[in-house]
Specification:
7-stranded antiparallel sheet, two-stranded antiparallel ribbon, 4% helix
């Protein structure tokens, strides 16, 4: 059994026991969060109807906060001596899927 869930503006394919990294969510390690299912596949049964998906719950447990890769932003203008350097690391959260209840 697996599900396609919405997690932070993206869609992720998950099954029970999977550990994935999503955009930052509020919560401390050990907290439980609910993810919105978009599609559920159980053997040969595929559920994509909104009314049936409203009854499906996908629960995940917050494992730890994480950070994305360092991104370097460099701005430069010719002949003026203008240079600007900036860095960024996106805040993320590592979660573990605990259950998919259909």
């Amino acid at each position: 059994m697996f599900a396609i869930v919405r997690a932070g503006g993206r869609q992720e394919k998950v099954s029970v026991g999977d550990v994935l990294i999503i955009d930052k969510v509020s919560g401390k390690p050990g907290d439980s969060i609910d993810l919105t299912p978009l599609l559920v596949v159980d053997g040969s049964t595929v559920t994509s109807d909104a009314a049936k998906l409203a009854k499906v719950t996908v629960k995940a447990e917050v494992v730890k906060p994480a950070k994305g890769p360092k991104i370097t932003i460099m701005k430069y203008k010719n002949k003026t001596g203008y240079r600007k350097r900036q860095g960024h690391r996106q805040h993320l959260t590592q979660v573990k899927i605990t259950s998919i209840d259909a």
